[in-house]
Amino acid sequence: MKPHYLTPLFSPRNVAVVGASDTPGSVGQAVFANLLAGNFQGKLYPVNLNHKVVGGIPAQPSVKLIDGPVDMAVVTTALRSLPAIVKDCGKKGVKGILLAKDFADSEEQERAALAEALSIAKHYGIRILGPNVLGLMRPVAGFNASNYNSRVRAGNLALVSQSSALCTAMLDWADSKGIGFSSVVSVGEALDVEFGEILDYLVADNFTQGILLHVHHVHDARRFMSALRAAARTKPVVVVKSGRYEDDVTGLTHSSNLVESGDVFDAALSRAGVLRVSTIAQLFTAAKVLAANYRVQGRRLAIVTNGIGPGVLAADSAYMYGVELAKLSDASMALLNDALPANWSHGNPVDIIGDASPVRFRTAVKVCLDDPNVDGVLVIFTPQAGTDHLTTAQLMVGLQRESSKPMFLSWLGDAKVSESRELFSKAKCAHFRAPEFAIEVFRNLASYHHNQQMLLQTPAPLEGALVVPDVSRARAVIAAAKQQGRAVLSERESKEVLAAFHIPVNPARLARDADEAARLAADIGYPVVLKIDSPDIIYKSDVGGVELNIANEPSLREAYAAILARAQAARPDARIEGISVQPMRKRRNARELMVGVTHDASFGPVITFGAGGIAVEVMQDRALSLPPVNQYLVERMIDKTRIGKILGPFKNMPAVEMEALKSVLLHVSELVCELPEVREMDINPVMADEQGVLALDARIIIQPLPARSKPYGHMAIMPYPMHMVHCSMLKDGTPVIIRPVRPEDAHMQQEFVRNLSEESRYNRYMSSIKQLSQSMLVRFTQLDYDREMALAMIREADGVEEQLAVARYVTDPDNESCEFALEVADHWQGKGIGVILMNALFDAAREQGLKVMVGEVLAGNKGMLKLMTRLGFGVQVHPEDRALTIVTKNLSPEPPAPSVQ
Predict the structure, then answer these.
(1) Locate the N-acetyltransferase domain: which residues (predicted)?
(2) Pairing mode, strands 678-689 and 407-411
(3) How far is CA 311 from the centre of its chain?
(4) Which residues 6+ apart lie within 8 Å of 268 measured at CB?
(5) pLDDT, average across residues 524-552
(6) Inter-residue contact 309 to 347 (CB < 8 Å)
(7) Which of 63, 580, 782, 788 is positioned for an S-S bond with 458, CB 3.0–4.6 A?
(8) Which one, of 406, 397, 194, 425, lies nearest residue 290 by Cα?
(9) What b/e sequence results for 664-687 when a residue is b if at least 16 CB atoms lie within 10 Å of its CB, and e otherwise?
(10) DSSP states of 37-100
């Protein structure tokens, strides 16, 4: 892969400082002095209109007059001069500009200058970081292009912050704790370069082992999520968010009223596999623990102590933080009963009595570490008569080296146990002055493990060929409403859309007068429900627009007139189409639920689930997730709610048909993916019991689509691209299916690689591997479809799928080019598979806006090179390795074939 396009910004060899100055207190003086003092190994060029020498170095009046190449320019002058400076930089060949200067939002002139400068920068291919930034630092390279005047240590953590003030506070705090950085990036206004691109650079940066983010708002959620997910697969990422209570989620439905933007951000981070914390201290503590490779597999904690008081307080902290106290196994209890004094606590916390010897401590902790019900152990030592803090500490250090489970050590006191703390620091053991800090870190590790599991979830299309939704039917309903200028679908229309996606609904039939209502009720069968039908009334019960359990025609006629009168009195301005007649569903064991969709300004559609009924906003019982979702994610949503606790057998009620409920949530996810016009939706109540699930009421709010929106452009996480699934025919008449690879293809992919000949495996992987490692298998089948694609060619025989070939690409960080690979099973070669599959891959890449496809082919692989030439690739010898050939294809749309007269 070629160097990241942000390399001129983050690792420049030659830097010009525009506005470099000797004037005390100026930004130009601070930045240039820091660069000089930082032992930067590259060339520094001061640029100053009024002075010929700055800091003892000859200065030029313009960047374009510098004798020698310039990778990056740091601009410290007033922003009104920026357009001219950017133009000079463009002519000089500069590729990165750092705006280390504040600007005022209210100054229209500066805004106009920024807009003009950005336009010029795009023309020359220059990337701009800022403005309003503290600056950019690479402590590991001695590069400090900032106005920060305190020490920043070199280390393996990268810090990226949207706030200059918060960034300086973090740096000061980190220095006092001895924490160092590979990079420090103050993003500022992020008018050009933003989080997603910076994360992509840091993922590839060998100096960075962990990433710390401060985020206030996100401009490009899709790029942000894709970059976060890519980073979290290889490096721990910890995020602190400011502005949690700035609510960007607004709308007409209950689903929108129940959700805050902070909740959506939490859901997004969970899906990205990163950890969110609340404070600066938590940010660095979590990062240090994660970077030290501490991991847990769950949230079950055992507490071992020689003081019941501190043990109980620690248990209280665990409850407060949502940490589960482990229930020790019978085998562990038997071992502890045999080894400990008779008056030990006989439970968790494990109080091993105040006079506990080092060996007694080791025995108890070892039993807990070996217990399969325990995910981590907190050891609390209190110095008492007869205890030996240092020997106990030495035994704990040895025990930690033996165990894969984490231990958290809290030696209470100060001077008496200082030697033990020094030992823990040297041994790099996790130790804390207070047990509650240890529990907080354990909670964060458990959350990180959970989020890493969420990261692995790549929802595939719904199982079974018979559940394909009738998307065209749903779009026709939406199109009809849009044609009438309506944003709100009626209950009948909403239910028709749901039915098109196989969501069970209670049918609604419109009656325009009482006579028609009576005929419909007779046809449906009593008892029935009457509901007002109006595009202007969202909540029918608010205007008395619902009558339940109507048993006969006289009651129906009376109810019809009463509903109309109440609705007209409450909302005289509302358009009333009539009254819908529906069957009255009575189920003794039913639970009322709500499923909804809301829209977040940054992350787009969000699915909500919780308790339903008319008191939904009072109950405040809901969980949410970004679509697309799968079975695992749906189960996690249900488990998070209070109503979820009573969906199983409850008192005298049988369990809800859970598979039917999960199916509804999966189909709602599918609906959101395929219908970008859907902005909000309430399905409330959803009646669920042992017989199944039924949507009794529904309302959908639609929105116009932006022009030229690409497939799934409305979503923060790219779903499975169903539209790319298609059938084809080989030259010998064999029917095949071409489709994007899914996570469940792992076994088929492994078999495919195992069955390749040694020559084919070497040509593809340039090594003599026999099969894919587990990490490679995950990497090849759990895809982020926004930035990579793998298309498999499948043949079905006797209900079993066989993979004949696979073609894949991975997008370069510039989002314009990609690197591809192709492999075809040996016994299926020569049947035209390569041409068919590569043309499908070209189409997928073009759909993502990619312009160039590049690959590396062994020079001896004559068959592949012949195919590449046939497909229009340019072929050239690799400049660094003559055994390799580079093939390149321009992906601009193919010209139409000339017509034959």
Answers:
(1) 736-898
(2) unpaired
(3) 37
(4) 221, 225, 603, 626, 716
(5) 89
(6) no
(7) 782
(8) 406
(9) bbbbbbbbbbbbbbbbbbbbbbbb
(10) HTT--SEEEEE-SS-SEETTEE-BSSGGG-SS--SEEEE-S-GGGHHHHHHHHHHHT--EEEE-
* Token pair belonging to 622: 């809901």
For residues 184 and 130, the answer to whether their CB atoms sit within 8 Å is no
In terms of DSSP H, where are the helices of 755-802?
Answer: 758-765, 774-781
Over residues 771-808, the pLDDT tens digits come to: 888 778 877 888 888 889 999 999 988 888 899 999 99
* Residues 597-605, mean pLDDT to the nearest whole number: 90
Q: Is 799 left (phi over 0), alpha (psi -120 to 50) or beta?
A: left
CB contact set of 110 (below 8 Å; sequence gap of 6+) = 79, 80, 103, 104
DSSP 722: G
The length of the chain is 901
The one-letter amino acid code at 400 reads Q
- Main-chain dihedrals φ then ψ at residue 373, nearest 5 degrees: -85, 0
Residue 15 tokens, joined: 């830097």
Q: How far apart are the first and last CA of the chain?
A: 46
Arithmetic mean of pLDDT, 213-236: 86
Order of strands, sheet of 181-186, starting from the edge strand that comes earlier in the sequence = 143-146, 135-138, 181-186, 154-161, 210-215, 237-241, 275-277
CA-angle at 837, arms to 836 and 839, nearest 5°: 70
For the CA atoms of 370, 374, 378, 379, what is the dihedral angle to 10 degrees? Answer: -30
Instruction: Name residues whose C-beta falls within 8 Å of residue 821's C-beta, 6 or more positions apart in sequence.
Output: 764, 807, 808, 809, 855
The stretch 466-491 carries a mean pLDDT of 89
CA–CA gap between residue 576 and residue 507 (Å, rounded): 19
Cis (ω within 30 of 0) for the bond into 895? no
Pairing of strands 622-625, 604-611: antiparallel
Q: What is the largest CA-CA distance in the chain?
A: 105
Among 269, 196, 263, 260, smallest CA distance to 239 is for 269
Identify which of 324, 316, 392 has the alpha carbon closest to the alpha carbon of residue 359. Answer: 392
**CB hemisphere CA count around 729 (13 angstroms):** 3
Contact 678, 605 (CB under 8 A): yes
The residue with greater pLDDT, 492 or 260, is: 492
- Looking at residue 615, its pLDDT comes to 62
Location of structure tokens 């494990």: 350
Check pLDDT > 60 for residue 112.
yes
Residue range 723-775, pLDDT digits in tens? 899 999 998 899 999 999 988 888 898 999 888 888 888 777 777 677 888 77
Measured CA distances, 377 to 358, 388, 434, 580, 711 (Å): 16, 20, 15, 60, 48
The whole-chain average pLDDT of the chain stands at: 88
Please give the structure tokens belonging to residue 398: 């040895």
**What amino acid occupies position 861?**
N
How far apart are alpha carbons 856 and 522 in whole angstroms?
72
> What pLDDT, on a 0 to 100 scale, did the predictor assign at position 673?
92
| Start-end of H helices in 799-860 | 833-847
CA distance 736 to 741: 15
Q: Are 393 and 424 in contact (CB under 8 A)?
A: yes
Helix (H) or strand (E) holding 874, with range, is strand 874-877
pLDDT at position 291 over 70: no
Do the strands 726-729 and 735-740 form a parallel or antiparallel pair, or are they unpaired? antiparallel
pLDDT for position 860? 87
Q: Which amino acid is at 292?
A: A
Q: pLDDT per residue over 14-38, tens digit each?
A: 999 999 998 888 889 999 999 998 8
Q: How far is Cα 314 from Cα 377, in angstroms, rounded to an integer? A: 12
